[in-house]
Input
Amino acid sequence: MSKDASSSFLHPRYWGAGLAIGLMRVGAWLPWRVKLVVGRTIGWLAWRLAKRRRRITETNIALCFPELDATAQRRLVRETFLANGIGILETATGWCRDPEHLRHRVTFKGQEHMARVQAEGKGALIIGVHFSTLDLGGALHSLFFPADVVYRPHNNALFERFMTRARKRIFGTAIDRHDLRGVVRRIKAGHHVWYSPDQDFGRDVSVFAPFFGVDAASIKLTAKIARMTGAPVMPLMFHRNPDNRTYTLEYLPPLENFPSGDEVADAARINAFIEAAIRKHPEQYLWLHRRFKTRPEGEPSLYS
Output
């Protein structure tokens, strides 16, 4: 980046992002126990103060876990905020430190599935999930297999530069989520691309498929990429273990007969995998976003 462009980051609109970046750099080097305390504190404060996000989380959990009574749902909401608070420190660690120092904290299962694809010289589409551990999971994954990543650019230019540089250090290439040609080109060249299809990107790019029994706008791009590239679709689970000190990454076998040609069935199949991954540690999922924002025609908003 040019000197003029860098100097523009001195503008007050970048001060908040600059402070956040500085705090993340410091947080990445805190002792592990301190990270957990700081993360939980951030999560607790957000649970108490971020009322809009708390209402969204409450709505999501009520929709997805109707079998829980009101007390259990409230407990899961609080645990979600605490886990996502820890996730901020995990993200900082993934972005700012060499993941090699965490190798002893990782258990990686199902490596043989990816090793088989790699031995065949094929590119693969890796299906991840928006857990609080997402970026640290990517860093830990890089210890075993190289991959590119599809991401959403940040609206703040300074934070976008920091985030993209960090992800390019972890992954081979960071690809804008709108760059379908870039994704297809990398996979056809034999690269593995990490992609998380579990957010609501609107009606134009989605079909409605069940997610925890609720119709959810589910993007069609997963099946489209698989069809355009012929690449195996590799489901990947990753969680922080109950000890809050170690992590598990697990590849499942490639999806068979995917895509099927039925967009709704394909989206439902991806959603079923995502749901199964979430149910292992539901508090670690990003319930704070409006997963059910887009509704079928005629249905009211679920977040009114």
Observations:
- Residues 148 and 193 are 5 Å apart (CA to CA).
- The chain has a mean pLDDT of 94.
- Strands lie at 106-109, 124-127, 148-151, 174-176, 192-195, 206-211, 214-219, 233-240, 247-251.
- The longest strand covers residues 233-240.
